[in-house]
Amino acid sequence: MFRALASVLLCCFFLEASFWVHFSYGDLTTCSGIVPMTERGDKISITDFGGVGDGQTLNTIAFRKAIYRIQHLRRRGGTLLFVPSGVYLTDSFNLTSHMTLYLARGAVIKATQDTSNWPLIAPLPSYGRGRERPGGRYMSFIHGDGLEDVVITGENGTIDGQGDIWWNMWRQRTLQFTRPSLVEFVNSRGIVISNVIFRNSPFWNIHPVYCSDVVIRYVTILAPPDSPNTDGIDPDSSSNVCIEDSFISTGDDLVAVKSGWDEYGIAYGRPSSYITVRRVTGSTPFAGVAVGSETSGGVENVLAENINLYNSGVGVHIKTNIGRGGVIKNITVSELFMENVRTGIKVAGDTGDHPDNNFNPNALPYVKDLTLKNIWGVNVQRAGWMHGIENATFTGICLSNVTLQGTTGPRPPSWNCNAIRGAAIEVSPRPCVELTSVEQSGSCASHS
Question: Residues of the signal sequence (predicted)?
Answer without folding.
Answer: 1-26
